[in-house]
Every structure is written in C-alpha cells, then in structure tokens.
Write a structure and sequence with these properties.
The chain contains 12 helices and 13 strands. It is α/β, with parallel strands linked by helices. Helix 2 crosses helix 3 and helix 5 crosses helix 7 (about 160-170). Bound molecules: (2R)-2,3-dihydroxypropanoic acid (DGY).
Length: about 325
Amino acid sequence: MPQPHLYVARTLTPAVMAELDDLGLPVVAGEEAPPARDRLLAGIAGAAAAIVTLTERVDAELLDAAGPQLRVVANVAVGYDNIDLEAAAERGVVVCNTPGVLDDATADHTFAMLLATTRRVVEADRFARTGRPWIWGPNMLVGLDISADATLGIVGFGRIGRAVARRAHAFGMRVITSDPGLNVGDAVDGVTVVGFEELLATADVVSLHVPLLPSTRHLIDASALARMRPRSYLVNAARGGVVDESALIDALRSGHLAGAALDTFEGEPRINPEFAGLENVVLQPHIASAGDRTRDAMCRLAVRNVTRVLAGEPAETPVRTPVATA
Ligand code: DGY
C-alpha cells in the first residue's frame, strides 16, 4: 500500500510550496487553476490530508473518493460554505479554516471598496482615461463625505467586522452593527448594536461580514434593499450568495442605491454582465484577503492544521459549529 499523501488542490504561495517537501510525506499538488472535478476526485484518492480552497466543493462524494484514511481537510479561507461539515463529521474528518490571519487584509480591502464606491474612485479613473475634455467644477463627480457624520452599518460583528469598524472610526464615521450574537442597545468597541431593521434604515453605507449560511442566503434581497436609506451604499466582501444580485442591479439602476462595491458574486467566477454596464458599482474579483503576507499566513495555517492533525494533536483552527458572523 502506498503511503497516504497530502493532496494540495491548488498551487499555494511560492514560499509555502517550497516548504511542503519538508513535511515528510508524499505530496500530490494541483495547479494554479482549480482542478476539474474528475481530477480533484482522482487527486484526493488515498490522501491522508487535503488542502483545498473555496473553489473546491468538498462533499460526501469527494470524501468517499478520498477513502477512509482521510483525516483532515484544511480550507485556505475563513469561509467554509464549500464544505459539507456534516458529511465530514460523519466520516471523522476534521475540517479547518483560516480565521484571524486575514482580518486586517480583508478589512483594509473592504475599506478601499467603501472609499472607492462612496468617492467614485473607479468611475473617475474610467472617466479620466477616456480623454474627454474636463475641467475642475463644484459639481464634478461628487460623492459621499464619509468623515462628515456618515453612518456605517456593519452586518456581522465578528473579527473582520470589528476590524472594519476600527478603520471607520479612524475616518470619523459613526458605526453601528447588527449581529444576532449581540444584544441590541449594547456598545461593543465603541460601536452601537442595533437591530437589522434599524441598521438598514439608518446606515449610509451597509457592509456585509456574515458567512453564507441557509439563514444568510439573500439576506439582502429586494425587500431589504427597499428598506435601506435612499442613496445609500452597499459593500460586500463576504459571500456573493448573501445578496440577491438581480435585486441589487434593480436598486442600482433605479438610483435607490447610490452605489455598491462587490468582491464576491453569486455565480463566481462568473460576474453577472449587467453589473459591467453600471457606472455606480465597483467590481473586484474576490481579492479582499490578497495581501502578500496574508496569503502566506493563510497557506501556512492550513499546513499547520494538517501537520497537527496528522501528528494526533488538535487542529489549531478547526471549524466549529457554524455561527452567524465571520
Ligand atoms: C475567505 O477567506 O473566506 C475569503 O473569501 C478568501 O480569502
């Protein structure tokens, strides 16, 4: 019987790829692009451990293809909606994610998107590149002054939501949050906890930081969008499925929402082509955690989780019961 291997579904960062040889077990590594399903099923067969990313669906079929010697699946992401936790638990497979190490990078990028949409940065760049004649004017490309008492509503006050709040405070924003794990009326880190309805009705900018769960799918649907303040903004660096994209397109087209910035999409990597025709949306290809040190840290944490479980120790960051915040 060959020694069970570590299956690495996709190329990790160069520094981490270079260290895999030191692990002392055979490594079968995929490529930069996500493997096709048949290659994924073949690659994981006989593995003791697998490092996957959010592009790999880990379900009963995949776990069965791996075989009973599979002990751990480490996701290189904090989100784990690509993994069937129940199927893994039934087979005694430990599932790990990468919380903590990407909070700052994700919050930085969320804030970059917030500024990009409220101050029309990408739209202005597009305009400047057209070569069309222009001259400074009091009404040219005016956006929202976030530092002048604008309210940021953070939906989901986990680590990333809190890191976004710190940045918003530094910019002089008023910050409110809604999170089912917190009591309405409390103040946490200088942020007032409100109900979801109040957040929608009050915030100038709504930023989403919840995991994708059955309870959060289409949390921002046509009705929620209608309850948002007229001319407010939506930022989504969580998961595309949290937003009903057709309803968002309608809200952006009608002008009810002044703008949106999206890092994640319902049918990723496909982006609804209707977004591309809208000036008031900033589109990012799921890069909020793409800081150089952060990506190394995510990959390293996944490797540490694997080595610990294979050594019979508890994983450093096992996925526990799904909660409502990321
Ligand atoms: C995650 O970690 O869940 C992000 O979406 C990718 O960094």
